[in-house]
Design goal:
alpha/beta, binds magnesium ion, binds ligand C2E, 280 residues, 11 helices
Length: 280
Amino acid sequence: RAKELGGRRVEVFAAHMHADVVRRLEIAADLQRALLDNQFAVEYQPVVDLATSRVTAVEALVRWWRGNTFVPPEQFLGPAEDTGLIVPLSEWILREACNEVAAWRASSLDIGLSLNLSLRQITAPRFVETVSQALAESGLPASALTLEVIEEMLVEDAEDTINKLSQLRALGVRLAIDDFGTGYASLAFLRQLPVDMIKIDPSFVSGLGRDETLTLLTRTIVRLGHDLGLIVVAEGIERPEQLELLREMGCTRGQGYLVGRPMAARGVDSLMRTPLQNTA
Ligand code: C2E
Ligand code: MG
Ligand code: MG
Ligand code: MG
């Protein structure tokens, strides 16, 4: 009987696996067409300076509407990475976002752009040239661009990755560690890569004021960042209490639904011209 149950459990597990594999294959097959059909869009989430409440940057976040269905990035970025389509997709996001932010800057909005990188994008042969070309063609100054990486990216091809990111930094581009604190080697990463910024993962920020350990860890990360001369950004701010504590800790910048949701390009322009509601 135990054997029978065990066997059934394996079957259920296999069925789940199967559904997941099928979904990934379907997504992979659709990605190529989606790219050709312009089904992707970029949304922008404001990042505010916590001391002044001023929007200092926007983070570009890719969006895919597959027909009427929204597919979250976490569902298609993996298949895009596996098929290599992440390379042309990321290049499109890079150009689109650089052009849009350069246009806002031209209309005298003094903001920067933060972009998420994928590992395959970095290891692609012309990565450094592609980024500098996008800057040159859009007119966006290198110092207005921040590239976000996660620790996992330094596991494979670490030397190539560090080398390319360092080349871009030498051009004036800023580097950020995204989801800081969740990887297995946050501190080692800081030693290997010349970064300007750390972004504290929402799993810490969520516990602010509610969980003593998470509050203490957040405070420690903020202090560590400052001691190293880094800009510290808190992600996933949803409650006023979190904002208050982060300000008190001296965290540099904040991002989250309370401060502003990711929005289409036209939303950014009007947001920037009216003061933020929730952060005063
Ligand atoms: P991330 O870079 O850490 O981006 C932050 C994610 O948190 C975004 O999810 C954003 O919509 C969400 N978020 C922001 N504020 C809040 C909040 O207050 N509460 C909660 N619950 N969530 C919040 P999104 O857009 O689904 O992106 C997920 C991840 O996908 C990103 O995490 C990033 O790793 C990746 N990603 C997104 N766009 C791109 C892209 O253009 N290229 C690459 N390579 N990766 C991307
Ligand atoms: Mg990010
Ligand atoms: Mg993050
Ligand atoms: Mg993330």
